[in-house]
Every structure is written in C-alpha cells, then in structure tokens.
Design a protein that fits this description.
Strand content of chain B: over 45%
Number of strands of chain B: 11
Largest interface: A-B, 21 and 21 residues
Oligomer: heterodimer
Distance between the termini of chain A: 41 Å
Order of helices and strands of chain B: EEEEEEEEEEE
Radius of gyration of chain B: 14 Å
Structural class of chain B: mainly beta
Distance between the termini of chain B: 36 Å
Shape of chain A: globular
Number of helices of chain B: 0
Number of helices of chain A: 0
Structural class of chain A: mainly beta
Helix content of chain B: under 10%
Largest sheet of chain A: 6 strands, mixed
Chain lengths: 113, 118
C-alpha cells in the first residue's frame, strides 16, 4: 500500500518568514495530495490540495508543489503569522483507492513573534 | 449544514467495558472514515465505508474493534472489551466519492471523541 513520509516533524520560524514542509510517497500511481491543518484540540481541516495533472497550486499565502518524477510534494507558507501555528499533515491517495487517504506523520509548526 | 456529528465528545471508561462511538456524516456524503489519533502513532485510518459498505478494515487493530454503517446517516465504532492502550481521540470523517468525473473530494472531520480507558 501507499506510504507517506513527512519532514520535518517540528518546525519553528519567526513571524513573517516562510515555512516549507516536505512529503514523499511510495505509490507512483497516487494522484491526489491534500494538506490538512490541525490546531490544538481541534479537528483536521483541509487547507489545500493538488492533483497529479498540476505541478503547483497557490491560495493566498499557501502553495503546494508536486514532483511526480521524484514522488514528492511540498507545502509552502509565506509571511507566516502566529495563527499558522498548528500541526500540518500531508496525505496521498492512489487511483482506485476509494478516496482512502494515507497521512504523513505530521509537522508541528510554531510561528514565534 | 451541521457538519459531521460525533458522540460522545468525551468518554471515560474502565478496562474491560464496552465502548460505542457514534457518527452522523454530512448529508449527501457517501464515504465515511474512522480514524484514531495518538501522539505515538499519529493519524491512523481504522476502516472506511463507501455507500454503507465496508471497503477496507485493514487498519482495525484487532477483533476487539468493530464498525457498522446500517444506513447512510449513521455509523458506530465499538470496542469490546476496552483496554488502556485504546485511549486516543477517535475521528469520524465523511466525503463525497464517485468513480467518474472528479473522484476525490475533501474529507470533513467531526470534532472527535476523546476516549480514556483506565
């Protein structure tokens, strides 16, 4: 089955700096890659996703890039703010997976003032 | 829309007791997922259903765990007997899925049930 690795496990940045979280996946057939944000004590919520026919997608300060050849994708957050502090999960799903997601282990992002 | 509804929000029980967690997916969604989250193991998929049919239960830890979806608007996850190592936050999520067109859609998570087994 699919295996997703995520790095780093913790990331601390200064407010206003950029943050990058990287994930690799094992199943070359995977074609959907969402990112979820989970604030402390809350539920995971989708913040952005990308499909395999697209190399990059942006939504305001958030962007995701996908390299299918290398089987890795990354989340980029620019101009970080304290409210960006949370745990971020990447995920992947292969076709025929019935919408089943395999999640990475999560990155604890802390934005310091 | 009320979103995914889970009950109870918190459950404290003693080892050996039966625990039943409940989930009501978003109306119109046809995929339902049960996840377990712990610090040690992260977010694990336990089982998921498409159109009320269990598709993959390979994540269910052992026979003490069982899940049902008797209709499109209700699912249960049961642990019998419960053990301290079952202590975790259990999330239910739902989404819309189809085999044609755009197959993948956002999974909406419920607020979770925090289970403590003493």
């Amino acid at each position: 089955g699919e295996n997703v690795e995520q790095h780093p496990s913790t990331l601390s940045v200064q407010e206003g700096d950029s943050a990058v979280i990287k994930c690799t996946y094992s199943d070359s057939a995977s074609n959907y890659f969402p990112w979820y944000k989970q604030e402390l004590g809350k539920r995971p919520q989708l913040i952005i996703d990308i499909r395999s026919n697209v190399g990059e997608k942006k939504d305001q300060r958030i962007a995701v890039t996908l390299n299918k050849t290398a089987k890795h994708f990354s989340l980029h957050i620019t101009e970080t703010q304290p409210e960006d502090s949370a745990v971020y999960f990447c995920a992947a799903t292969p076709p025929g997976g019935g919408n089943k997601l395999t999640f990475g282990t999560g990155t604890q992002l802390k934005v310091e003032l | 829309d009320a979103g995914v509804i889970q009950s109870p929000r918190h459950e404290v029980t003693e080892m050996g007791q039966e625990v039943t967690l409940r989930c009501k997916p978003i109306s119109g969604h046809n995929s339902l997922f049960w996840y377990r989250q712990t610090m040690m193991r992260g977010l694990e998929l336990l089982i998921y259903f498409n159109n009320n049919v269990p598709i993959d239960d390979s994540g269910m830890p052992e026979d003490r765990f069982s899940a049902k979806m008797p209709n499109a608007s209700f699912s249960t996850l049961k642990i019998q007997p419960s053990e301290p190592r079952d202590s975790a936050v259990y999330f239910c999520a739902s989404s819309f899925w189809r085999t044609s067109g755009t197959p993948y859609h956002e999974q909406y998570f419920g607020p979770g049930t925090r289970l403590t087994v003493t």
